[in-house]
Structure formats: structure tokens, C-alpha cells
UniProtKB/TrEMBL annotation, chain A:
Gene Ontology MF: a single term: N-carbamoylputrescine amidase activity
Domain of life: Bacteria
PANTHER family for this protein: BETA-UREIDOPROPIONASE (PTHR43674:SF2), NITRILASE C965.09-RELATED (PTHR43674)
GO biological process: putrescine biosynthetic process from arginine
CDD domains attached to this UniProt entry: nitrilase_8
Stated name of the protein: Carbon-nitrogen hydrolase
Lineage: Bacteria, Pseudomonadati, Thermodesulfobacteriota, Desulfuromonadia, Geobacterales
Signal peptide per UniProt: none
Residues of the CN hydrolase domain: 3-254
Gene3D superfamilies membership: Carbon-nitrogen hydrolase
Keywords on record: Hydrolase
Protein's organism: Geobacter metallireducens
From TrEMBL, chain B:
NAD/GMP synthase domain span: 13-249
Residues given in the record as deamido-NAD(+) binding sites: R114
Known catalytic reactions: deamido-NAD(+) + NH4(+) + ATP = AMP + diphosphate + NAD(+) + H(+)
Function: Catalyzes the ATP-dependent amidation of deamido-NAD to form NAD. Uses ammonia as a nitrogen source.
Alphabetical keyword list: ATP-binding, Ligase, Magnesium, Metal-binding, NAD, Nucleotide-binding
Family: Belongs to the NAD synthetase family.
EC numbers for this chain: 6.3.1.5
Protein species of origin: Geobacter metallireducens
Annotated positions binding ATP: G32, L33, S34, G35, G36, I37, D38, S39, T134, K163, S185
Protein name per the record: NH(3)-dependent NAD(+) synthetase
Length: 283, 271
């Protein structure tokens, strides 16, 4: 089916749940006014990124009024949004929910928490343990949060689980200036989204944030990538933006006919070899 | 170290100043304008970010400062149309050293740098405005600056770019040629130049620092790339020995939550 996706390239305020809620809700209203069917937000859109010791203070339970409000709004438009989730046993996760028709369809807890260079996520957050595709009104989807996408196995698992749309919520810090017109992080992500779409014959919706936190910039450039790897739309770099992209449902069908890599992908060979490698590592 | 895309760098640093100043509810910035290239560049970036009417420059000569420095500072300020004021630090500095006439040039230079800092922070409160730092990455890594003096600021837009890149970006921003082309000098005493005092040129050391810090090359790799072992040793020692200048004061830990060790928040907390 054809549908429209809004990528809400917002600038959350660090640790300000109430203000970020307002920001997210007004983006949702704008997306509804623009006749979008799905609104995608960045990673940790409700909280900001470099939270450090603020993590427990801004964490939300899945039964919190904030999440209930997102579900309520999802009666009008499907929503994918990132936040800090606290579980009953007080683990804190970098999570994203996908809400549609008034209910949470899927919750993804970030599996790969970067803890190197400028990142320190594992110090503050618990690791998710699964990648699962789920059904939506727009076909089967998979959620990824930023660093998840840098692990080839993550989008692969989702695609093998039947996802034809990969939604990646991101807070990517801009870095790596060179003679190129783009930062190193921009160049790398643009290769990654396009290559992932092309390898897996999936659409990729990549929503990145903008703004600065303690001198670190987030570079924006949110993208809708077609299953061929073609970039269908790209939001502005470094500035707030909200793109609306019409998704041509037929393009997925045609791409899967032209390049039936996913049809031919041999799960049993992959599993056999991975098990062999795993056994070898145990020795 | 290759060239950088100066248009992208300009865009990033201008956005940095605009966002990090305005998000704390302030519109203005204040900086010390020495007549050198680093502070001139920061003034150009700030004027673009905040509008010239929101940038205040303090020109703070001492009696032994090269008169050309003040002239260059005025040139930059007038070219930009930013507010500027000359505040001589001679009376304050001389009053203090009348008590310690034996003080050497290092102590005198540090005192001048810290005198200027107190003036900038007074203006910060008076305007109100945030103090912009003007130390580049080369100086910060080599510790070539005065702790709580010229190294003190609220925001530093050029602390992650090397001197060589300061030159490139200054060309892009239209900093006057006279300022770009003159010999870098701390101007703490007559005839002082940075490169003479450091014992190597900025271009040489920037290549080494970039390979060492940014690319994380091992000592063997650095030697293989043609850097002299003595040069590598000198620069490594400078980085290590000046590291205290790049950190907050250390705190004796006695509680379970000690500031900056296990009490960790970003400065932009709530912003």
C-alpha cells in the first residue's frame, strides 16, 4: 500500500520530559495536518541524549501517562518514538515504541549500547536482548535504535523475520571533519542506510535529531531510503526539519522482483555456519 | 593533516556559539581581543552567530604589549562592527608586582592573563554575556596557556581545531590579512613569538599532534611516518605534563557521590 511517512527531526532539551513531550506532540499534530500516516522520531526524543546520571529521573514506565498519551495520539497516526524505559525490576533501557490505532504494537530495547569514544551508554543503561519484526498497517516492520544498525546482524535478523521496512531512531553525534563537504559521521550513515536497504531489499526510515549537548552536535539529515538503496528524501543537515515522504508501495514489490536476494537468502546455511563458529568459540 | 572543509567548519562553529549561548537564556558574548588570529577568528564567528551588536570585545594591553597588537585588535573589531573597549591592565598588574619586584617573566605573564580573565568575567556579569574561549587545540594539548587565565571561558568554539586549521578558517571568515600573516605571539614580553618559545613550528607540531591524538598512531608508526624520536618525546611529555590544565581540580573522595566522579551530569542539563 501507498502511505506517507513524517520524519520529525527535532531538537530535544536535555532531561526536560515535559518540554520534549510538547515538542513531540506538536510534531505529531503537524504530521497529522500534513496527512502523514506514520511519524518517526529520533532516539531518546522524549529525554535528550547525554543524560548520564539523569537516566533514572527521566525514565518512563510503559504504563505511564506519557506513553498512554502517545498511544492515544496513535489513533490518528502511527508513531515511533524513543525514550528511557524503566522496568518493574528497575532496569533502564534505551527504548522505542511503535504505537498504532491506540495501542503499543512493539517495543524495542536498544541491544547495542555504544560504550567507547564519546559514548557511555552501558554505564547507565541495560541492554535489550531481542530483535523482532512486527506487523503494522504498512506491512511488517523492524525497529532499530542508532548503534543497532551498525551491527549487520540486527537488520539482517529483522529482514529474515519478514520486515520490509526498517525504522531506525537515531541520535548521531556529528564528528570527523575533513576536506569533504560532510562530516565523517554523515558520510558513514548515508552509506549505511543506503547499503542496508539495498542488501535487504527493505525500506529504511532513518530519523536523526539535531541540536547541541555540551558542544556535541547532532547532524540531522534524516532519510527515507527506497528498497533499491535510492534516497527518496533527505532532511536538512544540522537544522530542525520535518519531511513528509510518499511511499510507493509498488516499489517494494518491484524491487523484490528485480533483486530477489531475500528470497534466495539461505537461512539454514547461515545458521549452520554460525553454529559451527559458536561451537568453535566455546572450545 | 589534510585541509578541512572550511564552509562546513564555519557552519558548525557558528551554530555552536548561537545554540550554546542562547540556550542558557543569554544573547551576548564577551571575549578578549588580543590582536592575534585566534581571538580575531572567535570574534568573527561570534559576530556571525549572534550579530555584531551582541558581541563585546575587551582589548586589554599591558604597557609592554606591542602597539601593533592593539591596532590589530581594533582593526578586527571595527571591521566587524562589534562593541569594543580598551582596558589597560598596567595599573592593576604593576600595583601587584610592586610587592614582588623579583617576579620573573613567567609569573608576570600569568598574572596578566589572569587579570584579563577577571575583567572578562566582570563583563560577563555586567552585560550579561558568556565568555568565549580563544584557545585552539594545539595550545590546549601543549598546555601553552595560563590555567584560569586565557584558558578560562564558558564556551570555546575553537578548542577542537588546530592552529593550522585556525589559519584556514580565518581565510574563509575574512579575518584581515595582517592578522593572519603575522607571527603568532603571546605578546607577554617584547619580541616573544610562540614558535621560538615552543621550539618548533605550528605546522610541524600540528601534523604530529594530529597523527598522535586524532589518528592514535603508535610511537613506531610515528617514527615510520618521519617524525624525529626527540620531537615525539618532547611533545608527548608536554601533553602529559600539562594534563592538569585540561581537567577540573581533583576532589578528595569521601562520600558515595563525588562531583564529576560518580555525580555525573552534562553541563547542558535542562537546556
Amino acid at each position: 500500500m501507498d502511505f506517507s511517512v513524517a520524519l520529525a527531526q527535532i531538537k530535544p532539551k536535555l532531561g526536560c520530559l515535559a518540554e520534549n513531550r510538547t515538542l513531540v506532540e506538536s510534531s505529531i499534530e503537524r504530521a497529522i495536518a500534513d496527512k502523514a500516516d506514520l511519524a518517526v522520531f529520533p532516539e531518546l526524543a522524549l529525554t535528550g541524549y547525554f543524560l548520564r546520571d539523569l537516566v533514572p529521573d527521566v525514565a518512563l514506565r510503559l504504563d505511564s501517562p506519557e506513553i498512554a498519551r502517545i498511544c492515544e495520539l496513535s489513533r490518528h497516526i502511527a508513531i515511533a518514538v524513543g525514550f528511557v524505559e524503566v522496568s518493574d525490576d528497575y532496569r533502564f533501557f534505551n527504548s522505542a515504541i511503535y504505537a498504532e490505532r491506540g495501542e503499543i504494537r512493539h517495543i524495542h530495547r536498544k541491544v547495542y549500547l555504544p560504550t567507547y569514544g564519546l559514548f557511555d551508554e552501558q554505564r547507565y543503561l541495560a541492554r535489550g536482548e531481542r530483535f523482532r519484526a512486527f506487523d503494522t498497517r504498512f506491512g511488517r516492520m523492524g525497529l532499530l535504535i542508532c548503534e543497532d544498525m551498525w551491527h549487520l546482524s540486527a537488520p539482517y535478523i529483522l529482514a529474515m523475520d519478514g520486515a520490509t521496512t526498517l525504522v531506525c531512531l537515531s541520535s548521531s553525534p556529528g564528528r570527523g571533519i575533513s576536506e569533504d563537504e560532510n562530516l565523517g559521521s554523515t558520510i558513514a550513515w548515508q552509506k549505511l542506510t543506503s547499503t542496508t536497504a539495498m542488501f535487504l531489499n527493505c525500506r529504511v526510515f532513518y530519523c536523526n535529531r539535531v541540536g547541541f549537548e555540551d558542544g556535541v552536535n547532532f547532524w540531522g539529515g534524516s532519510e527515507v531510503v527506497a528498497p533499491s538503496g535510492r534516497v527518496a528524501s533527505r532532511a536538512r543537515l544540522f537544522e530542525e526539519d520535518q519531511t513528509i515522504t510518499r511511499i510507493d508501495g509498488g516499489e517494494l514489490r518491484r524491487e523484490r522482483i528485480f533483486s530477489p536476494m531475500m528470497r534466495d537468502e539461505n537461512l539454514s546455511v547461515t545458521m549452520k555456519e554460525l553454529r559451527r563458529i559458536e561451537r568453535g568459540r566455546d572450545c | 593533516m589534510g585541509d578541512v572543509n572550511v564552509k562546513l567548519l564555519r557552519r558548525l562553529l557558528v551554530a555552536f556559539i548561537r545554540e550554546e549561548v542562547t540556550k542558557v537564556g543569554i544573547r551576548k558574548a564577551v571575549l578578549g581581543l588580543s590582536g592575534g588570529i585566534d581571538s580575531a577568528l572567535v570574534a568573527y564567528l561570534a559576530a556571525e552567530a549572534l550579530g555584531p551588536e551582541n558581541v563585546h570585545a575587551c582589548i586589554m594591553p599591558y604597557k609592554t604589549s606591542n602597539p601593533e597588537s592593539e591596532a590589530h585588535a581594533r582593526l578586527a573589531a571595527e571591521h566587524l562592527g562589534i562593541h569594543h573597549q580598551v582596558i589597560e591592565i598596567t595599573p592593576m598588574v604593576d600595583a601587584y608586582f610592586a610587592l614582588f619586584p623579583e617576579a620573573d617573566s613567567m609569573r608576570r605573564g600569568n598574572k596578566m592573563a589572569r587579570e584579563r580573565m577577571t575583567i572578562l568575567y566582570d563583563h560577563s556579569a555586567a552585560l550579561p554575556a558568556l565568555v568565549l574561549g580563544t584557545s585552539n587545540k594545539t595550545e590546549l594539548l601543549l598546555g601553552y596557556g595560563t590555567l584560569y587565565g586565557d584558558m578560562a571561558s564558558a564556551l570555546n568554539p575553537i578548542g577542537d581545531i588546530y592552529k593550522t586549521q585556525v589559519w584556514q578558517l580565518s581565510e574563509e571568515m575574512g579575518v584581515p590579512r595582517d592578522i593572519i600573516e603575522k607571527q603568532p605571539s603571546a605578546d607577554l614580553w617584547a619580541g616573544q613569538t610562540d614558535e621560538q618559545e615552543l621550539g618548533f613550528t605550528y605546522r610541524e607540531v600540528d601534523k604530529l599532534l594530529y597523527s598522535m591524538v586524532d589518528l592514535r598512531m603508535s610511537r613506531e608508526e610515528l617514527e615510520k611516518s618521519g617524525f624525529a624520536p626527540d620531537f615525539i618525546a618532547t611533545v608527548s611529555a608536554r601533553i602529559q605534563n600539562s594534563h592538569f590544565k585540561r581537567r577540573l581540580p581533583i576532589i578528595a573522595k569521601v562520600s558515595n557521590r563525588t562531583i564529576d566522579r560518580d555525580f555525573r551530569y552534562s553541563r547542558d542539563w535542562g537546556k
